[in-house]
Description:
- A three-stranded antiparallel beta sheet has the order 1-2-3. It has a three-stranded antiparallel beta sheet with strand order 4-5-6.
- It has two domains: 4-66, Single Sheet (Rubrerythrin, domain 2); 72-410, Citrate Synthase, domain 1.
- The chain is 52% helix and 7% strand.
- The protein contains 18 helices and six strands.
- By secondary structure, it is mostly helical.
- It binds s-citryldethia Coenzyme A.
Amino acid sequence: xxxxxxxxxxxxxxxxxxxxxxxxxxxxxxxxxxxxxxxxxxxxxxxxxxxxxxxxxxxxxxxxxxxxxxxxxxxxxxxxxxxxxxxxxxxxxxxxxxxxxxxxxxxxxxxxxxxxxxxxxxxxxxxxxxxxxxxxxxxxxxxxxxxxxxxxxxxxxxxxxxxxxxxxxxxxxxxxxxxxxxxxxxxxxxxxxxxxxxxxxxxxxxxxxxxxxxxxxxxxxxxxxxxxxxxxxxxxxxxxxxxxxxxxxxxxxxxxxxxxxxxxxxxxxxxxxxxxxxxxxxxxxxxxxxxxxxxxxxxxxxxxxxxxxxxxxxxxxxxxxxxxxxxxxxxxxxxxxxxxxxxxxxxxxxxxxxxxxxxxxxxxxxxxxxxxxxxxxxxxxxxxxxxxxxxxxxxxxxxxxxxxxxxxxxxxxxxxxxxxxxxxxxxx
Length: 428
Ligand code: SDX
């Protein structure tokens, strides 16, 4: 197999090295292209462009493979926990029992947020979308921890910032929801595990304690594992490029939350439920919506379908679909939109339009059905995605910083006016 490619241009021949990853992925290294040939590449949406080399997560879109640090998502979802997977993604290895205990204790001891966060919360109208509140609150952590503004501090100080963010995000997320409900915030309880603590902060009321259902806590833990990282997706790339300017981890993740919010990315899980509800209200005519999704003159898309990388099934969707059946059965929830989702999947997977384009259900297609069964309100679905994705964002940011990667600054092909003389306003 050749380790270089030749580019013939303007009578010259340029040798471009081919690099190969540990999973036999090959890339044309164009880092010297402009210097040698004057050419740049153009690839809108970076569909064919690698932005970095990474050892964190591996996807094979053709075979529907997803691995975190070499471990399959199927094994981790079945046997691990979200806190353990967070450790694996961030530090690169599964923790020993002692390491996990210490990691969990560090997180538990940092779940409280500064009382002044409540004053910031009070400034948000009750109709504020929790994703906008969460992105702002995460950025506000720089005000409470100004040392975090310098990511070039010692590794132990950077790790302190990492622990604080992992510990406080669920608290900030739950408080964003309480702000929406105009209910008093609930403080974290150190005796509870990560998911149970979050659920209690979401749903406990001054009038009644929240009874933690282990089925709900376990289902949430599995969903967070499934969302924990996904290599160079839109929000992870955002976190990397903001962090590449040596901005703090908090502001890099705040930007990642903003990117995740979009309905083409993490916001799809909310859009899927809204779409399924629309279909239900419209008499359940699934065929009509499948036809609309195929109609180029109609802006309607099947939310939760399609993926930039997976042109076969999304392994996470397969796991979540099964979990949806199990959780709804265990909770005795009968949600009519689950049947609509399954019918939609069945029709689409047998339709040439979707098959030809490799459009399968993605991670967002079934996740909202479980969140709803767990009592999570629809506009908190993407917040749940952010809580799950946080260790992945942190791992990507940490790897980028440790590899001393340069500031991200793409080139462009200019298509505007070449040159014009200024005309005074009286002559325009
Ligand atoms: C996530 O990158 C990640 O890893 C993301 C993620 C993660 O874990 O971080 O996996 C999480 O964001 C999952 C995706 C959630 N988004 C949605 O479910 C929104 C609906 N899906 C699409 O908008 C779309 O499929 C994307 C955005 C997910 C992918 O878009 P691409 O790769 O840019 O593909 P495209 O828009 O160029 O579509 C290719 C073709 C087009 O048709 P043609 O021009 O070839 O005729 O497929 C069609 C599209 O019109 N198409 C769809 C469709 N998705 C693509 N047609 C109908 N319904 C859809 N959902």
